[in-house]
Design a protein that fits this description.
Radius of gyration: 44 Å
Number of domains: 2
Number of helices: 4
Strand order of the largest sheet: 1-2
Helix content: 55-70%
Order of helices and strands: EEHHHH
Number of strands: 2
Strand content: under 5%
Shape: rod-shaped
């Protein structure tokens, strides 16, 4: 059976049982579904997506054909730093100062991947969230203000339509009242003329 598949029993009778884990070469059970270990699907860039994964780049360099060629950091830490230390000591500079400088150089290059880079990534993510929170607050206030403006505009148009409808009904009623009064006057005049005859 291929790696990554799951065995199930009782498929013939239509009653599938729970999937059984496969034992890989490492001796650990491996499940086909990522539900058991969902964090395995998350890489480092999921949390720090602003920086490339330097560890993956280093692994690729180690497995590449040019892995035997020394890098700039290797030259600086294994050649330049010791030569600088010997040069400073031989020129009667304080050994304590040279030792501090030597430790500082090694700490700068070797401590970058273990201390400085994670600290810098944490600080960068905090600053990124500090930057994003006001932006989201601005967009939220912008949305609220526009909703208020739309509501006020809708109420204004509603009031305009209500007043227009009210004035229209009032004009129609006044016109009908004038017509009825005019018709009543005409009928009264016709009755008076009939009596005079």
């Amino acid at each position: 059976m291929a790696d990554g598949q799951c065995r199930s029993e009782g498929l013939g009778d239509g009653k599938a049982k729970h999937a059984q884990p496969l034992i890989t070469n490492q001796g650990r059970p491996k499940f086909a579904s990522p539900i058991f270990r969902p964090w395995k699907n998350l890489d480092h860039n999921f949390f720090c997506n602003k920086f490339p994964d330097l560890s993956a780049i280093k692994r690729e360099k180690l497995h590449s054909s040019s892995a035997m060629s020394p890098s700039i950091i290797d030259i600086l830490t294994h050649v330049v730093a010791p030569v600088l230390f010997v040069y400073l000591v031989s020129h009667k500079i304080s050994r304590q100062f040279a030792l501090y400088l030597f430790i500082g150089v090694f700490g700068l290059f070797y401590g970058y991947s273990t201390i400085l880079r994670p600290t810098f990534l944490i600080m960068w993510n905090l600053l990124w969230w500090v930057y994003r929170v006001p932006v989201w607050a601005f967009y939220g206030l912008h949305w609220i203000c526009w909703q208020l403006i739309r509501g006020i505009r809708a109420l204004a148009w509603f009031g305009f339509y209500v007043h227009f409808f009210g004035y229209g009904v009032k004009f129609i009623l006044e016109s009908v009242d004038k017509i009825l009064i005019w018709m009543g006057d005409v009928l009264d005049e016709s009755k008076e003329q009939g009596r005079k005859r």
